[in-house]
Amino acid sequence: MKLSIVPGDITATHADAIVNAANSTLLGGGGVDGAIHRRGGKRILAECRRLRETELPDGLPAGRAVATTAGDLPARWVIHTVGPVWAKTIDKSDTLASCYRESLRVARELGARTVAFPAISAGVYGWPMDDAARIAVETSHAMADEVGDVVEEVLFVPFGDRAEAAFRAALEHLT
Ligand code: AR6
Predict the structure, then answer these.
(1) What is the pTM of this model?
(2) How far does residue 121's CA lie from ligand 1's centre (Å)?
(3) CB of 32 closer than 6 A to ligand 1?
(4) The domain containing residue 53 runs over which residues?
(5) Which of 5, 159, 164 for a ligand 1 pocket mutation test, highest count of atoms within 8 Å of Cβ?
(6) What's 136's domain CATH number?
(7) N or C: which end of the chain has fewer CB within 10 A?
(8) How many domains does one find in the chain?
(9) What strands lie across the sheet with 2-5, from one edge to the other?
(10) Which atom of ligand 1 is found nearest the CA of 10?
């Protein structure tokens, strides 16, 4: 399983599945979530609403992942996951790692060969970028044995120079 860095806007990234840094309501928000719903059109929100009415009446808990259509995006699926809100006194690293693990498990079940991730929790939710990038890269790398029979490539999509530098450093640190 290859790990790559493709900086820019994830809504323009060509991948089988694009991961959304959503919130528990699944009903939209700002940041990457807002961009995905804006560019992906109404079908994504319609499926999110259906999920809320059926299997997720209380919303999607942090660390879990669920898929919908990608609507008008250049992808087949959007995988919605909810990152933890960063907190100084509580270590929620395993919840953030779980976002990557669960998203990749969903991707494998769907048959997605390429999966694009934003820097989950590193925006509105306040996670320090270097640490967010390290968790993203290390966790995805560790999933290769479990999902690599289907998922051929994981694309990290840092938004801005600071995020790109963090992801490049995290990837270099692996090898
Ligand atoms: N493409 C790629 N990355 C982006 C894009 C984009 N178009 N737009 C922003 N980013 P955030 P979170 C980066 O805040 O911290 C929403 O309101 C951004 O610069 O989108 O997990 C949800 O509804 C940052 O590096 O997600 C939740 O309420 C990274 O994506 C809450 O924000 C994540 O920033 C989730 O917060």
Answers:
(1) 0.98
(2) 7
(3) yes
(4) 2-174
(5) 159
(6) 3.40.220.10
(7) C
(8) 1
(9) 2-5, 153-156, 114-117, 17-22, 77-82, 65-69
(10) 1
